[in-house]
Specification:
This protein has helices at 14-23, 42-49, 67-76, 90-97, 119-125, 177-184, 204-220; strands spanning 5-9, 27-31, 57-62, 81-84, 102-108, 131-136, 166-169, 188-191, 196-198, 201-202. The chain is 31% helix and 21% strand. One of its GO terms (biological process) is L-tryptophan biosynthetic process.
Length: 222
């Protein structure tokens, strides 16, 4: 049976971190992008990350950050995986990550046909990434709660390969994620808005329902 990795992003409260881990999340994300309504400081990310049990990965999300900002995040959360969600080049990502694993977000235009977004070209360009977070193109770079046209991208193209580790993102909810996992068969999924009571405040019942909905699709797979 396949096991889709689950990341819950944009946490700002200890109770939400503890609930996400207890409910079965594989990773939780802390947004170190000051313009986000879910932004936390590096020190706060460190406090929150210390609530995680072993084997649940903290992810630090940056948008076009400077090296000193990434360094401050890594000092506070030394075991973090990095997620670059802006306009960073492959060279920027590698330099900022300093040998740590990093994910790069792709921002897919909304609307039918995904605006001609070329997933294969993106995967080639970011071949050094540990994973590709495939998100919708929204104002403010992310966390907008909008889904792009999943049917428009060549998820099973052999050139993409298993190594690309596609993380489906953008507008996922407990109601649509089972279908998303069935159609895309991603390595992982990433959600923020769809499990929130308010920006940065997670709803425990929605988080549990989201994880159960992913596992439902996993249980159908061979
Ligand atoms: O969460 C944010 O505020 C955020 C800000 C800037 C860039 C990315 C952000 N979040 C990421 O956006 C996607 C999709 O979120 P949603 O589920 O559609 O709300 C997800 O990868 C978050 O990690």
């Amino acid at each position: 049976m396949r096991r889709t990795r689950i990341k819950i992003c944009g946490l700002t409260r200890e109770a939400d971190v503890e609930h996400a881990a207890a409910a079965g999340a594989d990773a939780v994300g802390f947004v170190l992008y000051p313009a986000s309504p879910r932004a936390v400081t590096p020190a706060r990310a460190g406090q929150l990350a210390r609530r995680l049990p072993p084997f649940v990965t903290p992810v630090l999300l940056f948008v076009n950050a400077r090296a000193d900002e990434v360094d401050a995040g890594l000092q506070a959360v030394p075991n973090a995986v990095l997620q670059f969600h802006g306009d960073e080049t492959p060279r920027d990502c590698a330099a900022l990550a300093q040998g740590r694993p990093w994910l790069r977000a792709a921002r897919v235009p909304l609307g039918a046909g995904a605006g001609g977004f070329d997933l294969l070209e993106f995967a080639d360009r970011f071949a050094a990434a540990a994973g590709l977070v495939v998100d919708a193109h929204v104002p403010g770079y992310g966390g907008g709660g909008h889904a792009f046209d999943w049917n428009a991208l060549p998820w099973s193209h052999p050139r993409l390969g298993a190594a690309a580790r596609v993380v489906l993102s953008g507008g996922l909810t407990p109601a649509n994620v089972t279908d998303g996992v069935r159609r895309v068969r991603p390595w992982g999924v990433d959600v923020s808005s769809g499990v929130e009571a308010a920006k940065g405040i997670k709803d425990a019942a929605l988080v549990s329902a989201f994880i159960a909905a992913v596992r439902k699709a996993d249980a159908e797979s061979t």
